Amino acid sequence: MGRSGKLPSGVSAKLKRWKKGHSSDSNPASCRHRQAARSRFFGRPSGKSDLTVDALKLHNELQSGSLRLGKSEAPEAAMEEEEVSALTEKSSATFLSGLSDCTNVTFSKVQRFWESNSAAHKEICAVLAAVTEVIRSQGGKETETEYFAALMTTVEAVESPESLAAVAYLLNLVLKRVPSPVLIKKFSDTSKAFMDIMSAQASSGSTSALRWVLSCLATLLRKQDLEAWGYPVTLQVYHGLLSFTVHTKPKIRKAAQHGVCSVIKGSEFMFGEKAPAHHPAAISTAKFCIQEIEKSGGSKEATTTLHMLTLLKDLLPCFPEGLVKSCSETLLRVMTLSHVLVTACAMQAFHSLFHAKPGPGTLPAELNAQIITALYDYFPSENDLQPLLAWLKVMEKAHINLVRLQRDLGLGHLPRFFGTATTCLLSPHSQVVTAATQSLQEILKECVAPHMADIGSVTSSASGPAQCVAKMFRAVEEGLTYKFHAAWSSVLQLLCVFFEACGRQAHPVMKKCLQSLCDLRLSPHFPHTAVLDQAVGAAVSSMGPEVVLQAVPLEIDGSEETLDFPRSWLLPVIRDHVRETRLAFFTTYFLPLATTLKSKATDLAQEGRTVESKIYDTLQWQIWTLLPGFCTKPTDVATSFKGLARTLGMAISERPDLRVTVCQALRTLITKSCEAEADRAEVSRFAKNFLPILFNLYGQPVADGDTPAPRRAMLETIKTYLTITEPQLVNGFLEKASEKVLDPASSDFTRLSVLDLVVALAPHADETAISKLYATIRPYLESKAHGVQKKAYRVLEEVCASPQGPGARFVHSHLDDLKKTLLGSLRTTSSPAKRPRLKCLIHIMKKLTAEHEEFIAALVPEVILCTKEVSVGARKNAFALLVEMGRAFLRFGPSQEEALQRYLVLIYPGLVGAVTMVSCSILALTHLLFEFKGLMGTSTMEQLLENVCLLLASRTRDVVKSALGFIKVAVVVMDVAHLAKHVQLVMEAIGKLSDDMRRHFRMKLRNLFTKFIRKFGFELVKGLLPKEYHKVLVNIRKAEARAKRHRALNQAAEEEEEEEEEEPAQGKGDSIEEILADSEDEDSEEEERGRGKEQRRLTRQRSRAWLKEGGGDEPLNFLDPKVAQRVLATQPGTGRSKKKDHGFKVSADGRLVIREEEEEEDATTKMEEEEGTKGEEEEMADLMEDLGVRNKKHQKLKHQKEANDEELEMPPRYQAGGSGIHRPVGKKATPGAEYKAKKAKGDVKKKGRLDPYAYIPLNRTKLNRRKKGKLQGQFKGLVKAAQRGSQVGHKLRRKDRRP
Questions:
Q1: Residues contacting residue 254 through CB under 8 Å, at least 6 positions apart
Q2: For residue 1114, pLDDT beyond 60
Q3: Which of 622, 1165, 1170, 1297 could covalently link to 571 via disulfide, CB atoms 3.0 to 4.6 Å apart?
Q4: To which H or E segment does residue 662 belong?
Q5: Closest by alpha carbon to 323, among 285, 373, 270, 365?
Q6: 1241, 1285, 1293 from 1296: Cα distances, Å
Q7: Beta bridge partners of 1236
């Protein structure tokens, strides 16, 4: 390496040099892609495995020459019929080309999961192609039965393991579709052939053929009828399958276990009308499992026992009662071995038994109870995490199932479990506390809550189930003692569920607990106030506020000496949770209390004690806020509302601070509590009292400084009350309102307010009143006062919106008059009135017939122009009306395409009008193209696209923007074949855009180019565009490739996670690993052996058990009945586990160090993936957002995307790091820099900081005498600057004082 002339002398010696022969050491060690490519380069496949030819020769011999080949190259020629374009190995010698001739859908799975690199899959395809050819040559129809017969003939003749595995796999596929009568008739021959193969392959090294044959045998047995299972030969064949469930090879064992489960659970006769209670083979299966477990249960590894327990986990719910008992006893016996894995598998078997919820014929209630009692002897140690979690889950399912089978017996067992589970709350493991809490909550919801109505009242002296509930509550209540203080949050959650489930019936035994909760709430620094409030709230919901306040009174009566109010926290809790209670209790208890507190507040205010007055005023207001909760489904509306109505009316009239609350209560009462006719009639009776009060208050102007919220609340209350008001009363109100509108003395505010009331009244009036109202508001439709005109259209909108009733009848009878009025007021309509006017037209459009087509034609120009109105609502309604017009034309007929063509002809003239009209017309056509994409003819769409491409040449940005939006939607909507004809036209039109247009719409154009590249390829789009666009296209291609790579990596990672999570015993042959045969190469075997060693090491580590010694010097007593709790699956006394490596570097102070470049790359990928997967709806939503018609969901996504774009556009910054000139150099902080203004000159005041004076930081270097002169100059500068600022300020003040 020579010395570089650009480097200073001496530097070249420091440069790193490659040692001789090591210049490529940085290249990657693996180059599998290059090796794979090199193996196929310029070569045909070589080797002995010309599988297709062998398979065809084999079938030639089998069929005695019926399959004739003219030349030796015939198989290859046949395979090349489908793909002849390329000469590479994958296309010219592919096995899929021969397979593609198979028309039977049974084998579509082979085609779907094709892998060209698998020799086993090539064998499968070769056999299938050969069998298909044989069936066709004999005139077959390629049915499942024909394939079954041909494959059975083949399976008896083949000798090589590879061919046998391929035939067995195809048989496994086809047997599932062969008719049952065929398999029943051919059972003897078929089962004999399978059994022979199984006996021959049992000791061979290959597992593929045996695995598929076992699956075939299971399918064959599953198809047999009930009568066939009475023959000994059927059971003999089944026992042959059963014997492989303890095979040493995992794949064979799993296939056999899966087959046994499918036979026992999925035999066809088990789903018929005369299905037996249990499968005939269930008895022998259970005996086999028990025998195998007892035979190998005491061995050290207990491998066979684990295999049998795995099988029992699936089959135990299918056994009859006696055998379930025997199996349960066996499971309990093997659990005494203290083998951790055996115990865990036995627990899984019990869990599956209870989770399946079997009937009394399988698991009677007595046996269920006996298992529960026995499992208490296997209660793990509180420090043994995983076994304890499993035990809790099994006991939870066991008790739920027992209560389902027999309620009283199950409830009798619950107190003991509650006591045991409550002790688990003392565990140091948070997972155990959480699991115990969840188990108890689930039992309360599943076992106790549904039966509380039958149990009745629960008292301390009750007996039977009620006594059990009381004991359970006492066990949970004990959790409030101090020794459980670490788990108080969980105890409070339990109490919350207990109150919800049993509060209505069990409140006599819960009052003491409520008092304890209130005392806890008042204790200083109590950390769980939110959970406690939720628990008390649950008590309020279930027991009612009356019972809760009897147990824990409010202790507020207005005569307090101190203002502590320790129970005032109950008021917000009651407010949030009260419902379905007595309304009379609010009238008798809370109303007098609120009155007392209000008078007390008034007296204190008069005495000048403002703070005390404010406190009492807040309390009385909080009491009033309880009213909406009391009005939520009260139980005594018919009897209690009349006593409350007068008070509510006075509160609305005289108490402005209570109007919103009282109006909310009235709305809640009407919407949620007037379902019964008596309740509805009672509340409706007071409409004549409430509505005039609300009308008068709504007509009063809002005072300065007040919020308009009460007016809105009153208007909503009026609308709600009118839904239950008598029509005669509504007509009277409407008549008076009309007189008020016409009164010349009414002010503008009054007239607008009354029109608001008319809008609310109109939908509930009869036809006569609506006719009078229409005559009243008709002149106001052309009013010059924009507000009045808008309100008049709102009235008309409410009338036209009625789908039935008086409003619909009025529209039908006055349709011609409405059309004339709406057309006549077209020119005088103001912009604010456009939204309700368009809404009126939408409602009228739904009622039009073919004779009104001229009316629609007259409206089209107005609607098109409204697509660019200022109001978002008007634009939205304009697009909706355009669509409704199209639907009207479709109703008119005669054909859909012709009707749409007639409609579009009305819009076309807008394309040659003024600039605004052209832009609006394109937007209208875009929306119609999207809405009617399935109904619009191809020629129409192509014609539209051509015309819009011509408009791209416009010099107006608005027109170009609309045209680009149309093309964007057309790309998504149009078929690729039809769009391909116009790609050149579109690209030429875009290529002719001016530089200004191209720059302004660069993001829109990029989006369009991306879509075209995805549909038609990069080269085609690049060839059609000028050079100015090529740089953008290359950038798009790179971004697309990067996004594709990331998607592939993410998909691969997800598939790996799914493979790790999925249970192999439940596989049904859909995965690629089960479709393709196993690789028997030595390399893969070595890898499996290596993995097997690691797996065995982990298994040994997991299966270890530890004995927990006695406390102190006390020896361990092995005769103690609780000695099983001393056997731990977790090593006692171990330290903390090693910290998990999350893949990020950690700084010295413990913070994660994450590079920004990776974040930017992830953000880019996410943006591209979202853009790549965006559908038609999102495209249209984006276009509508451009017009100002926004959707919240798409708006949020767009903001995220824009944020990512901004991050991506930031130029990369240099970050210091390293040594020498690259070291990070910290800038010296300037004193007072934090006070510097960002935009203006001078300093600014900051909240929470000192004022920005000239503070001088203390520094020991300032004491240096040599720097004295420099420092003096610095201070002089500071003083001079301050003096100048003060002089300027002084002059300005003097100038302001001058008259």
A1: 1064, 1065, 1067
A2: no
A3: 622
A4: helix 659-673
A5: 285
A6: 22, 17, 5
A7: 1243
DSSP labels, 384-441: -HHHHHHHHHHHHHHHHHHHHH-HHHHHHHHHHHHHHHHHHTT-S-HHHHHHHHHHHH
The Cα-based distances of 819 to 809, 843, 905 in angstroms read 16, 12, 22
> Given the DSSP bridges, would you call strands 1127-1128 and 1106-1107 parallel, antiparallel or unpaired?
antiparallel
User: Helices marked H in 88-118 — which ranges?
Assistant: 89-92, 96-99, 108-112
890-914: per-residue pLDDT in tens?
Answer: 888 788 888 888 888 888 888 888 8
CB of 72 closer than 8 Å to CB of 90: no
- The reported pTM is 0.67
Give CA–CA dist 129/111, Å, rounded. Answer: 12
Neighbours of 1014 (CB within 10 A): 14
Q: Indicate the SS3 state at residue 1106.
A: strand
Selection from 122, 124, 119 nearest residue 151 by Cα: 124
**DSSP output for 1008-1059:** HHHHHHHHH-HHHHHHHS-GGGHHHHHHHHHHHHHHHHHHHHHHHHHHHHHH
Query: What is the residue type of 16?
Result: K
- Cα angle for residues 1252, 1258, 1259 (degrees, 5° grid): 135
**pLDDT on residue 1251:** 72
**Sign of the dihedral through C-alpha 104, 110, 116, 118:** negative
Q: In the chain, what is the greatest distance between 2 CA atoms, to the nearest angstrom?
A: 127
Give the integer Cα–Cα distance in Å for 296 and 299: 6
Rounded Cα distance, 361 and 276, in Å: 11
Backbone angles phi, psi at 16, to 5 degrees: -75, 140
Q: What's the rounded Cα separation, in Å, for the pair 1162 and 1145?
A: 18
DSSP for residue 1175: -
Q: Which amino acid is at 216?
A: C
Region at 456 (left for phi over 0; alpha for psi -120 to 50; beta for the rest): left
Most confident of 466-475, 1070-1079, 1160-1169, 1237-1246: 466-475
Ranges 14-28, 270-284, 1125-1139: which has the least confidence? 1125-1139
* 969, 975, 978, 984: CA torsion to nearest 10: 50
The residue whose two tokens read 């634009």 is 875
Neighbours of 1185 (CB within 10 A): 14
Q: What is the mean pLDDT of the chain?
A: 79
Output the pLDDT for position 575.
93
CA-angle at 1150, arms to 1145 and 1151, nearest 5°? 65
Between CA 377 and CA 209 the distance in angstroms is 46
Q: Which residues of 464-486 are buried (b: 16+ CB within 10 A; e: fewer)?
A: ebbbbbbbbbbbbbbbbeeebee
Give the pLDDT confidence of 943-979 residue by residue, as tens digits: 888 888 888 888 888 999 999 998 888 888 888 888 8
Residue 1245 one-letter amino acid: K
Q: Which residue has the higher pLDDT, 339 or 1221?
A: 339
How many residues are recorded in the chain?
1299
Burial group, residue 874, by CB count within 10 angstroms (0-12, 13-18, 19+): buried
Amino acid (1-letter code) at residue 331 = L
Phi, psi of 327 (to 5 degrees): -65, -40
Instruction: Give kind and range of the element (H or E) at residue 1127.
Output: strand 1127-1128
Q: What is the CA radius of gyration of the chain?
A: 42
Would you give the DSSP letter of residue 1142? Answer: -
Q: Residues 663, 714: contact at Cβ < 8 Å? A: yes
Task: Tally the C-alpha atoms within 13 A of residue 448's C-alpha that lie toward its C-beta.
Answer: 33
Task: Assign 174 to helix, strand or coil.
Answer: helix
1079 bridge partner residues? none
Phi then psi for residue 743, to 5 deg, are -65, 120
